[in-house]
Design a protein that fits this description.
Layout lengths: L1 H18 L22 E7 L5 E7 L5 E6 L5 E5 L4 E4 L3 E6 L2 E6 L5 E4 L2 E7 L4 E8 L2 E7 L5 E5 L2 E6 L5 E8 L2 E8 L5 E9 L1 E8 L3 E8 L5 E7 L4 E4 L8 E2 L7 E2 L5 E9 L20 H10 L1 E9 L4 E4 L7 E4 L5 E5 L14 E7 L5 E8 L7 E2 L6 E5 L2 E6 L4 E4 L24 E5 L4 E5 L4 E5 L5 E3 L3 H4 L1 E5 L17 E2 L5 E7 L4 E7 L5 E5 L5 E7 L6 E7 L2 E8 L7 E5 L12 E7 L5 E7 L12 E5 L23 H6 L3 E5 L8 H18 L8 E6 L1 H10 L7 E5 L5 H5 L2 E2 L4 E2 L1 H6 L12 H7 L12 E6 L7 H13 L4 E6 L9 H19 L10
Parallel strand pairs: 34-39, 49-50, 49-51, 51-52, 52-55, 55-56
Antiparallel strand pairs: 1-2, 2-3, 3-4, 5-6, 6-7, 7-8, 9-10, 10-11, 11-12, 13-14, 14-15, 15-16, 17-18, 18-19, 19-20, 21-23, 22-23, 23-24, 24-25, 26-27, 27-28, 28-29, 30-31, 31-32, 32-33, 34-35, 35-36, 36-37, 38-40, 40-41, 41-42, 43-44, 44-45, 45-46, 47-48, 48-50, 53-54
Helix pairs in contact: 5-6
């Protein structure tokens, strides 16, 4: 009988399996506990091989990061633990460096070659070379290999070396028996090298490349005297500046040399020894008229020199000084025959983060100098060079300008166009910041400029213009997508990109209504083909193969862990090649929603709402609202639960504990930042209360930095909140206004007059606004239990501000607890600190919003 029962049971099991019967009442999935946070990771770092056959990306985990390599056709993947970055060489090889071991994976045979003692790697994509810097014990060598790891050249006893930006050329010095050999190597096939120089007891460093050759500093190790040299690749000759031309010590700081495009001029820095000090050790003397405040002068005195920029004219073999105490800084133009000089400490009124300053055009050939722009506002935009010229673009007086150094004329590029080129349309109270210049056409005739929504094409000679997108009408923001670009060399980072819209150009499009992003192709006929768009998901990190139309991208939503998708072309069907955080599907998850609401002064705003698992529409839930300017754009993001939170806040941690989390927007009114955020927060909460989502007694508030200030201010204006957390935020605006910042080398008044506080007036022009916006003066109105925290090494917001919160509320017998993290800065970067604060935030809100009174540290 038993056998019959067993057989019958087996038959029933097979039937259930065959017909996929489900239980009549499925068990609900569990929610996530704090013990399970470490299962989650964050997906990032998309890369694609040049033809698009392979992808790589990484996931950061609390314990160990993992790099993933995926075959886009077969979806087979390799996981490499303990690293974040790998590199493709053509379609043949994938390599990664871990613990000084370089692994080369042959993508066709799956063979792995391991090279030990590797400190650094460089790839020459043009010549398909792998360059490794290897060091075993005291011997450092450079080894050049092909993509399969076969050694083509081994260069031992290396001291200094440099590769050009594209990793096509190399220069290096070797030392043998006190003789230094400086050699040049072309990475083409076959490898070609030759000797540049050989001398005893010298060293070469600070290499600076251009298309014609390389500049460097040669230092005599016996006398410690240095000079500037240049090597001409075509002529295979080098020349050096005569030491007797120059008395000061040449600065050896990395990247201190700059070459003109034609190589006739080499710019360098030199140390001019101070004859006398402007400070003394017995007493600090602070002058009200100082451009350089006392700490800057003191640091200079301790250094013992001024750093000035000089230029060596190689043809005439003369040197000329560019900067001095009046004009301290240099901006190199593209050709670098002419440069811009300015004094970054000029007009030191402390009303802006970067002081306004006059700009002088200096001709390094004629040595003539002329002031061309008065009171330039570098906060609004940086200067952008036009390649192959000494012309440049800048923003001033609500317009974009081009300065033509040939005719020495300022040309207003946008005076004929009625639009808004800066942020004043969307945040008029904040400091003026231009939307930017996208690039210049290949023939250098047309400039591509952004307004609030669109891209404009403007001919700088005729001033003819064309708005090539129509974002304003559809409430979408159009921008060129440059995410495929590799990093530029620092010295040339001020040059505008060269754009060829005769070819397909990729755009990224922000949907302001849905708070999502999409991608499109700008065709040569200026029509736009949108190929990746959804109001349900967030698309990001699109990377296209360099030699095909294939691309990969990330897709996510609040209830969809980030995925990597592959498309062979824009018209092809997308294929999912990787899903992160698969354990997500074993748990219940909430949803997110974008809501609209209206403030009492009729401002229409949006907020992102994140609901807990098993949300029931007619139930009352505890709510936590986080503030920091505008946050509704977070609505489609996946938020992995985690202990690793730099401000102790995590959306999914809280929703999994049964809270609704709210991230609102705000429209700031000039002079009334505190009132603006209060109106926004109260309005969204009133809507939730009216709709029966929450109620007074179940609402918490949290913010950090400027969001900490906003939290502090809101608590003085309303008793809606039953618990709050504030981190590294301002509390006493007047004390903050008159604080001297070591970090920014100036008085902190710029924050209030032209930055986040948006007061736009000095304290003496309108002291009532500073009092009105300062939580300290209304601290007696705070009724909400407050947990405050700070890092004692915070360079942005003084820990004294958090101490002021504590002392004020202590004096008033209010409910306040202060946490101080001894080694933390503005954010908590130490994992133990992050976990400690995150756990206390959980317990704080549970104590006051859920009546869970089992946390002994709260009293």
């Amino acid at each position: 009988m038993k056998c019959i029962i067993i057989k019958l049971a087996l038959i029933l099991i097979q039937l259930f399996s065959l017909f996929n019967f489900q239980p009549l009442y499925a068990q609900p999935k569990p929610t996530i506990t704090e013990l399970e946070y470490d299962k989650w990771g964050t997906l990032a770092g998309n890369k694609l091989s040049e033809k698009g056959n392979w992808s790589s990306f990484y996931v950061t985990y609390p314990s160990v990061d993992s790099l993933f390599l995926v075959n886009n056709q077969t979806k087979k993947q390799l996981t490499i633990k303990g690293i974040r970055e790998g590199f493709f060489m053509k379609e043949h090889t994938f390599l990664w460096l871990k613990n000084q071991e370089l692994s080369l994976l042959n993508l066709k045979t799956n063979d792995i070659t391991i090279i030990p003692f590797v400190n650094k790697i460089y790839l020459s994509q043009k010549y398909n070379k792998l360059i490794t810097v290897e060091k075993e014990k005291a011997d450092q060598q450079i080894v050049i290999r092909n993509q399969f790891g076969k050694v083509e050249r081994q260069i031992k006893q290396i001291r200094n070396f440099s590769l050009d930006e594209k990793v096509n050329r190399m220069v290096y010095e070797r030392t043998i028996d006190s003789t230094t050999y400086l050699e040049y190597l072309e990475l083409a096939h076959p490898l070609s090298s030759y000797l540049i120089d050989q001398q005893k007891s010298v060293t070469y460093q600070n290499f600076s490349w251009n298309n014609k050759g390389i500049a460097m500093i040669k230092k005599d190790e016996n006398s410690s005297r240095s000079t500037v040299c240049y090597f001409d690749e075509k002529q295979r000759k080098s020349d050096c500046m005569k030491i007797d031309l120059f008395e000061d010590e040449i600065d050896l700081t990395p990247r201190s040399l700059h070459l003109s495009k034609d190589s006739k001029l080499v710019y360098f820095n030199a140390k001019n020894k101070l004859v006398s000090k402007s400070t003394n050790d017995s007493v600090e003397i602070w002058y009200g008229s100082d451009q350089l405040i006392y700490p800057i002068r003191k640091a200079k005195d301790e250094r013992g020199y001024e750093l000035y920029t000089w230029v060596w004219n190689r043809e005439e073999n003369i040197v000329s000084q560019l900067t001095d105490t009046l004009l301290t800084s240099v901006h190199y133009l593209a050709n670098a025959k002419k440069v811009l000089l300015y004094n970054k400490y000029e007009k030191t009124t402390d009303d802006k983060l970067i002081n306004n300053h006059d700009l002088y055009l200096y001709d390094a050939i004629t040595k003539s100098k002329k002031r061309i722009i008065k009171s330039f506002n570098r906060n609004a935009s940086h200067i952008k060079n036009i390649a192959q010229t000494d012309n440049f673009i800048y923003y001033a007086d609500n317009n974009w300008w081009m300065y033509d150094t040939g005719s020495e004329k300022n040309i207003n590029l946008t005076s004929l166009i009625d639009t808004q080129w800066d942020n004043q349309e969307v945040d008029e109270a904040y400091q003026k910041e231009a939307w930017g210049v996208a690039g210049v056409s290949m023939d250098k005739e047309e400039i591509f400029i952004y307004d609030t929504y669109d891209i404009w094409k403007i001919n700088w000679r005729t001033l003819a213009f064309n708005r090539i997108t129509k974002g304003r009408e559809s409430q979408r923001i159009f921008r060129f997508d440059f995410s495929d670009e590799k990093r530029k060399e620092v010295s040339y980072s001020n040059n505008l990109r060269e754009l060829d819209i005769r070819q397909d150009s990729r755009l990224i499009i922000d949907n302001l209504e849905a708070r999502t992003k999409s991608y499109g192709i700008l065709k040569p006929n200026l029509k736009i083909n949108v190929f990746l768009e959804s109001e349900d998901f967030l698309y990001s990190n699109l990377k296209q193969a360099s030699l095909s139309k294939a691309f990969i991208f990330m897709k996510e939503a609040y209830n969809l862990p980030a995925e990597v998708w592959y498309q062979k072309a824009t018209e092809s069907a997308p294929v999912k090649i990787y899903s992160s955080n698969l354990q997500h599907y074993n748990y219940s998850w909430g949803k997110s929603e974008l809501i609209n609401y209206t403030t009492q002064n009729s401002q229409n705003l949006k907020a992102a709402l994140f609901y807990p698992p098993h949300y029931k529409k007619d139930s009352i839930y505890p709510v936590i609202i986080r503030v920091y300017e505008n946050l509704s754009h977070e609505v489609k993001k996946y938020h992995p639960p985690s202990w690793s939170n730099t401000i102790g806040f995590n959306v999914s941690n809280l929703t999994q504990q049964g809270y609704i989390v709210v991230l609102p927007d705000v429209n700031y009114k000039e002079g009334f930042a505190g009132e603006s955020i209060t109106n926004s927060v109260v309005a969204v909460l009133n809507k939730l209360i009216k709709n029966g989502v929450t109620e007074k007694g179940k609402i918490g508030l949290i913010g950090q930095s400027f969001g900490g200030y906003e939290t502090n201010y809101i608590l003085t204006q309303t008793d809606l909140f039953s618990a709050a957390v504030t981190g590294a935020g301002f509390f006493d605006l007047i004390k903050g206004y008159f604080t001297m910042s070591d970090t920014f080398e100036k008085m902190e008044s710029w924050r209030y007059e032209n930055h986040q506080f948006r007061i736009r007036k000095t304290f003496y022009q309108s002291p009532d606004l500073y009092i009105k916006n300062s939580p300290l003066f209304y601290a007696d109105k705070i009724t909400t239990p407050l947990l405050s925290w700070t890092g004692l090494k915070d360079p942005i917001v003084s820990p004294e501000q958090t101490m002021t919160i504590y002392t004020a509320l202590r004096k008033l017998n209010k409910n306040i607890i202060m946490l101080r993290y001894p080694n933390a800065g503005h954010f908590l970067l130490n994992r133990n600190d992050q976990k400690d604060l995150t756990k206390r935030v959980h317990e704080w809100f549970a104590y006051y919003l859920k009546n869970k009174r089992n946390s002994k540290w709260i009293k």
